[in-house]
Input
Amino acid sequence: MSHHIVEVRDLKFRYPDQTPALAGVSFLIRHGESVAVVGANGAGKSTLLLHLNGYLTPTDGSVRIGDFQLTRDTVRDVRRTVGMVFQDPDDQLFMSTVFDDVAFGPLNLGLTPDEVRERVEKALDTVGVTHLRKRPPHRLSTGQKRRVAIASVLSMSPDILVMDEPSAGLDPRARSQLISLLRTFHHTKIIATHDLDMVVDLCDRTIVMHEGLIRADGPTMEIFGNEELLAASCLEKPLRMQGCPICGG
Output
């Protein structure tokens, strides 16, 4: 299934003020993998994710999504394959009702009203917010907004799901519900996050970024067991792996 593959080669990026963000990033992600991208603030995680959907254009290097090398001419095709869930759901929700937000993408694909309605209802049902279809998004809780933002991506039927800090701002129950939801998805998943315990729950593979470079790429538990690597990357072990601070167990 070549159309599911994500291949990044020597990706470099500088912002307009010439601040470097990515300094030569390369990796390959295959169909069905769940991959975490972790690192301290400023490591380049969000900048990397924005390249996977064509929101940013490489300064140098290349991004290939399946059969398409990402260019201005192919970005529309890439966005049909890669669904991006932003860190702040308010960046994604802008219509007057939840239904309209989730319908926006399918409508722009040129689908019929019946096809759009079917996709919207399926996406809302998948994330468990069908009852919110007539609500204005700005009156939802953070957890509800996150689910609607995911539904707005699922309605496009992407092959690859890219998420930036999906658990940010969620209370413990909403976070647990999100993890349970993401476990049911059979998409290729790429998740940038500071929530390393969520990584343990969802991702078999972890990419560690530091100062715009990949410092490690391998099985999640091996990565999190490498204390020297974590310290050098300004990270700590997931809480569940740190032991009891009182008894040391």
